[in-house]
Design goal:
The chain contains seven helices and 15 strands. It is an alpha/beta fold. It has one domain: 3-Layer(aba) Sandwich (Rossmann fold), CATH 3.40.50. Strands 6-5-4-9-10-14-11 form a seven-stranded mixed β-sheet. The longest helix is centred in the C-terminal third of the chain and has 15 residues.
């Protein structure tokens, strides 16, 4: 291979001697194929960024946990209007900017607890919720989603009826280290949840690596498998009618067909 080609590949974060095979990447993508589970999707949150599609199965969810809330709180407000208690955590915002009706924690969520960080496990355990309560988890924390999901116990994940996560840097799936981490996270989520929706964030354009088209950032919605109400049916049309571009002035990034066909 010419030196210039090697340089381009290395600049993308790939090491030819330790790269993920195309077959491995496609296999993981196929596992994440969204399915219709007998529950229609609704939109919570604003049009554009910070709005997400979730299954209309919100009754009796006791609380929404939203790490990385920023100052965009329409999703949390909509959850509150659905009867949920709201717990938000973000060290980049000030308490005065958070409504008093929400429980606010001036910390980042991470793999350990200290003055600046708290684990999901400790955060939930200190929230005085019912032991058997269902939760909604909405997470957009700029790449830290991986370490947080890996750090969560199966018991805590299983309490989450609905999980909405924006995953970052998916264009690095051909990097073996990234792939190993990402596949561990997705496989952990898929043990007791199923993907029902994927929406590319059009902050970045879809890229193609080895003929596999990948959105660098995408919002995934999962529902716990015990909530499935019908025979699974693969979703074969994207975008959803309720999807909205995160950045209105940017070109729409449609979910590549390999992710759902």
């Amino acid at each position: 291979m010419k030196a210039s080609a090697k340089k381009i590949i290395n600049s993308l974060g790939f090491n030819l001697s330790n790269a993920t095979s195309k077959e491995e990447v496609i296999s993981l993508i196929k596992k994440l194929k969204p399915h219709y589970v007998g529950i229609d999707l609704i939109r919570l949150g604003a049009e554009g960024d910070s709005g997400y599609l979730v299954p209309n199965d919100l009754e009796n969810i006791e609380a929404c946990f939203s790490p990385g809330c920023d100052n965009k709180l329409q999703f949390e407000e909509d959850c509150y209007q659905k009867g949920m208690k709201i717990f938000v955590a973000d060290k980049t915002v000030e308490a005065k900017d958070i409504p008093d009706k929400f429980s606010f924690l001036d910390k980042f969520v991470g793999a350990i607890s200290n003055d600046d960080l708290i684990t999901m496990e400790e955060w939930v355990s200190k929230s005085n919720l019912k032991e058997d309560s269902d939760l909604l988890l909405q997470m957009d924390i700029e790449g830290d989603e991986f370490i947080n999901i890996l750090s969560m116990s199966k018991n805590l994940l299983d309490k989450c009826r609905i999980i909405v996560i924006e995953f970052h840097d998916l264009d690095k799936l051909f990097n073996k280290f990234y792939y190993n981490v990402a596949s561990s996270v997705f496989n952990k989520l898929l043990e007791n949840h199923i993907c029902v929706h994927i929406h590319p964030n059009n902050t970045a354009k879809n890229i193609s690596v080895s003929g596999v088209e990948i959105p660098p950032l995408a919002e995934f919605t999962f529902i716990r498998k015990d909530r499935i109400r019908s025979k699974l049916k693969a979703v074969n049309s994207f975008p959803h009618k309720l999807d909205s571009d995160c950045v209105p002035e940017n070109q729409t990034q449609v979910l590549p067909k390999i992710w759902f066909e």
